[in-house]
Structure formats: C-alpha cells, structure tokens
Design goal:
Layout lengths: L1 H4 L8 E6 L7 E7 L2 E8 L4 H16 L17 E3 L2 E7 L13 H21 L17 H17 L5 H20 L12 E4 L8 E4 L2 E5 L6 E4 H12 L9 H15 L3 H16 L3 H7 L10 H13 L1 H9 L1
Length: 329
C-alpha cells in the first residue's frame, strides 16, 4: 500500500484499508490516509488499454458536468498503477448511498432517465475519436435450441446438488418453467438483419453503480463495461434492474416517466424503445448467467439476485404489451 501511495503526490500515508463487499467484477477498497479518503480499485481483468479508455472518458465527462469520479493521476500523469502485474486505480472517495427504484419518486425516476440519456449523448461527444474495440461486434439474439441444451445441463446440476436447499428447489422450478415458456414463444426470436442504433454506453448502469447524495445523483461509478452497444437496450436493461420489485414485477408507473425522459434527452423514437424492449425481453428469457455462476463456476455471489430476476422473466412475458407501452408511450 505504501509503495502505491508513494506514486501520488499529496496522497499521504495509509491509515486504514477496508475491503468493500459490493461488486462482482472487481475489488474495491475504502482507503483512508493522512490526507484524505479514497476509493482504491483493483481491476481484475488487467486490460490496461481498456482501463485507460475508461479513465479518459470519465475525465472528459466530468468536464461536461456529469456526476463522475475520475481517477487521480500519479506524479507522472498516469491513472493506472501496475504493481506486481496487477492494475490499480485511485479515485476520490464520494460520500453517498445507493438507491433502488423503489425509493425513487416519479419525479426522481424522470431525472434518472434524463441522466442516462445525458450519459449517452455526452459519450457520443467525448468518444468520437475513440476506436471501437473489435470485441464490440454485434452478437446475434440467443438461439432457443442452445438455451434448451443449457437448461437441461443446469437442471441436472441443480438436481444433483447435495445437500439441496431452497435455492436449488427454486432453480429447478424456474428452469422447468422457463423451458415451457421458451417452447411457447420460440417463434418470437428477434429477426436477424435489423441492426439497432448503437453508440457508446456505460454498459452496467444499475443501482450499485450510482451513488446518491440526498435526492440527487452524486456519482456514476464503475465504467468497466464502457463500450459500443445498442443505446436503447441499455435504457431498458437499467430500468429492469432499478424498477424490479422483490416479486419480479416492474413498477411501470415509474418506468413510464423514466422512459419518456430518456427519449426526450436522446431523441430516441418510441419505436426504438419498443424494439429494445423486445430484444431485452428475449435476452432475459434465454439468460441463465446467475445459475451458471452457481452450478458451473461454483460461485454463489449472484444468488441473492436470482429470485426476483427469474420471476421477472415470467411476469414480463405475461405483461409484455404493458411493459412495451410503458417504454414507448
């Protein structure tokens, strides 16, 4: 820790370093020094070019007035510290707390949609000269035949788990249920060839990556998935995380003002949001990443998210038209 801090002029000497529990992709620490408080991020992927691109984007977004926390530069102007082959970044500590959509009023939901729209339009400005990574190629919609094979594999793993618990029972129920849903709706797979409008997006816009101070957003965090994707799909995915209830239903009374504000901020047409709803619905219907983590990778960190996420796919299918209209109305 001392070796890292010596790279930063005025950072002070370390007093404490506390591991933060939240976060699935990287490791974060609350670092207190004799000169202040910082957020120390350990980038597990170690892709220095991608990390530098993220840092450059947040620095330029800060100039435009967006609530971000760009990294601190060291004495030589670098924002990525490599120690023992590991990549670290030091950010100013931002006081605040996370707020789920259940805590937001309709007016605050509207401001959330405006904020994401502003992120997208500002990224379009600051990333104009940035090369698009080759890995950002558009991925085709999920093939249900592949999903059926995955369901059978996950079912076998869930049924064989010992000792079994309530989660395993729920997983088996949801897998069987999802298989039946896909059998009924396989013909609704999004058509290939109709490419949606793409642009630079945050890539992981959800409550744990947004800090509030009081009623207003204080900082948009974790830009690790910054990339080029269909922008309207990020708006739909974000809403499906912010506004999902514990029983897997969306608060459409908040989705509607959120989506209207997003469309107003970006100029996106209602038809674009409606098409994005369909693609994200299909994506969710075929997605089992949480169960793959548990049963294939033996990693249970995403387990708490599964009950609501799995129920949402079922509810969304049943209320498809109402969800589409809430985004496109």
């Amino acid at each position: 820790m001392c070796a890292l801090l010596r790279r930063y002029e005025g950072a002070g000497e370390p007093l404490s370093c506390e591991r933060l529990a939240q976060g699935l992709l990287n490791r974060g620490y609350h670092l207190a020094t004799t000169r202040g408080r910082y957020f120390l991020k350990h980038h597990l992927d170690g892709d220095r070019a991608a990390i530098a691109r993220q840092h450059g984007a947040t620095a330029r977004l800060a100039v435009l007035g967006l609530p971000v926390a760009p990294p601190v530069a060291d004495a030589e102007g670098r924002t990525v510290a490599v120690i023992g082959g590991r990549c670290y970044a030091l950010h100013p500590w931002v006081d605040g707390r996370h707020r789920g959509g259940g805590e937001l009023t309709a007016a605050q939901s509207r401001r959330l949609g405006s904020l994401l729209g502003l992120v997208h339009t500002c990224l379009e400005r600051v990333m104009q000269q940035s090369a698009v990574p080759e890995a950002e190629a558009r991925v085709e919609s999920a093939d249900p035949s592949d999903t059926f094979e995955l369901i059978e594999e996950l079912l076998a793993l869930a049924r064989a788990r010992r000792p079994r618990d309530a989660f395993d029972e729920l997983a088996e129920h949801r897998l069987v249920e999802r298989r039946a849903l896909l059998e009924r709706h396989a013909h609704r797979r999004p058509e290939a060839g109709a490419e949606p409008a793409t642009g630079w997006v945050h890539g992981d816009f959800h409550p744990l990556n947004l800090l509030y101070r009081g009623a207003e957003p204080a900082a948009i965090l974790d830009w690790d998935r910054l990339g080029v994707q269909p922008r309207a799909e990020e708006a739909v995915r974000a809403a499906a995380i912010f506004f999902v209830g514990p029983r897997g239903t969306l608060e459409l009374s908040k989705v509607r003002p959120y989506a209207r504000a997003y469309r107003r901020a970006t100029g996106a047409a209602p038809e674009e949001l409606a098409a994005a709803v369909h693609r994200v619905w299909w994506e969710r219907l075929n997605d089992f990443w949480m169960l793959r983590w548990r049963y294939q990778l033996r990693d249970g960190r995403a387990d708490p998210q599964f009950p609501a996420a799995a129920a949402l796919s079922v509810w969304w299918t049943r209320e498809y038209e109402a969800v589409r209209d809430a985004f496109a109305d």
